[in-house]
Fold this sequence. Notes:
mainly beta, outer membrane lipoprotein receptor (LolB), chain A, 14-stranded antiparallel beta sheet, two-stranded antiparallel sheet
Amino acid sequence: MNRHEAPVGWLRGCLVAAVLFLLLPIENVPAADTIPPGTVVNFSNWQQYKDNMTVGMVTLFQGDHFWSFPKNAEIVVGPTVPIGRPKLYIENTEKYGSQTRIVSVGSDGGYTVANYTAGAPFPDPLSEKNPDLIGQEIHYDAYYRPQARTEYAPNCTTAVDRYGNMTRTSDTNVVFTQMTHLSSPTYPVELPDNGGYYRAAYIEQTAPEQGKYTATLLLSPNDPTRIDELYTYVPSLRRSLRLSEAARCAPLFGTDFTWEDLDGGPPGLPQLFKITYVKSMKLLALVHQNPKAYGSCGTSTGLPPEFYYNAGKQILSFPTRASGNWELRDVFVIDYKRLPAYSTGYCYGRRTVYIDKDTLFPLAVDLYDAGGKLYKMILLFNLVVGIPNTQDHLLTLAPAAGYAANFQDEHASTYIGTVPCIDHDCDAGGWTNVSRYGTADGLMKIAQ
């Protein structure tokens, strides 16, 4: 054999392998553990990064369902900026975390939490030896995530019909009040006037005029296995009414969001669900949105054009480059399915939630119907908010933006929470008043 034959054959083999690699379909490229800052993800290359997206995001890029992203949509990737958890929340995690337990409820396969005080109930859920409990632990970490004692933001909601027409349907004042299990500086672990409730979500309509003063209140009991109390104030009757638990699946102020979607992912009554840990992944998310994007809701027929591409026929709105850079965030992915005994008549067949490991905040949700088909997707865009008189920061629900795309009913809803405040920064506006914004009696003080 000629002494040059082996090297030539080896080179020929390398060239063939390289050509075959280049001919591989792009979707076979594995998920990126890192994406260099400055990378622009768009319709020409999105498949390279699809494993860093939610199912809903992939669906919107594929365009094989009713909705899609705008063809000029761009995800500009920046460096991942840690947010962390507030100092007091970390201290409470260290102090109380070892006490918390997951315990079974009844014989249907449900679970609840026991001995929880404050901080993260399960500091390291992936260390759980029982795989059936990992999803449960992540759920409670997200449910009891770092939150402000009070979050307030004027909120505007825009409906998008199947032809792309955008109509600003309502302006509201949104107030979230946490009353127990607090890790907020200058507040006790439990407010003395908590009434046995963990959290209150208050939404009062301020426009249009015909809907003004209509308000709804969701009270979540301190015991997560108890049914939430849902009230609405009807201005024409000058009284409040308690609604059925079934109203959790009803549209919220005519949007594509329901009360069950209000917490950004974790639904109520977790003991009725099989909660499964699916995987960990790196997700492209917009968590450091430009604060200027919250300065205005836009007009009656569109979002602020500097910060959002507006919708078109079968096209959703989307943040522009001016809204800020996206990041690769480490997330848990968990699935919720109602246990068979409780699945009949429920809003969704399955809920997939993407939970940021750094902040325990839900960043996105995929929702499926009873037949397993994709029904909706919810994507949140976040504003990092500083906690007054500390160096700590939070992701919040009231000061936030995002949308719900309804693939089956062929409409969508967007929202922007503007001019936000949290905790003592809300004192001057009266938003920290629990008796007004955290009790059913407070509804009767509307328009007084």
